[in-house]
Specification:
two-stranded antiparallel sheet, alpha+beta, 184 residues
Length: 184
């Protein structure tokens, strides 16, 4: 028989609840196997949990470093201008101007375009301000990209913290025995 080959003792025990519920059932099981299996499962869970917690700490550390790098990029900007700088060619509306003729050239202007209160605004830029405003608009674009990256990193950090909590959390303690409760 398989049980005799493994030198495991078969123990018969009874679950007797007849005094309260009228239920009685007998069970046979290899107690040594049950204890060994439970101990191995606990050790496996502890080892896996420690490995998972270590990995989550490493992920959190990497995410925090990237967060700090992105935050440094945001903080380096001193001035921003919302909008885009681009060239625009239009007709001026004067009927005697060369742009009003069918083969006449259009007027070129470098403009700043931005949205405000749900409407697009456009402002012509002076020749001396074009490079500076273009740089400030690029700063704004970079600032917004860093903001999006920080928000994404923040969500990833929170998810990693949740996974770390799961890896570190212990199960609740077993209920107190009847004799422990009577002592109180």
């Amino acid at each position: 028989m398989a049980l005799e080959e493994n030198n495991l003792r078969v123990v018969h025990f009874s679950l007797d609840f007849s005094d309260r519920t009228g239920y009685k059932e007998s069970c046979s099981a290899t107690v040594g196997f049950m204890r060994a299996t439970r101990k191995m499962q606990s050790q496996d869970r502890a080892t896996a949990s420690a490995g998972l917690a270590s990995r989550q700490r490493q992920i959190l550390d990497d995410l925090c470093k990237e967060y700090q790098r992105q935050l440094s990029d945001v903080l380096r900007h001193r001035e921003l201008v919302k909008g885009s700088v681009y060239g625009l060619k239009t007709r001026c509306g004067n009927p005697t101007c060369h742009c009003a003729k069918p083969d006449g050239g259009l007027h070129a202007a470098i403009v700043l375009s931005w949205s405000e209160a749900g409407r697009t605004r456009i402002r012509s830029l002076a020749v001396g301000d074009q490079a500076r405003i273009r740089s400030l608009a690029e700063n704004y674009r970079h600032f917004r990209q860093c903001r999006v990256a920080l928000a994404k990193l923040h969500r990833q950090i929170l998810a990693a913290m949740d996974r770390l909590e799961q890896a570190l959390r212990l199960p609740p303690p077993p209920p107190a025995s009847v004799s422990d409760r009577r002592r109180r």
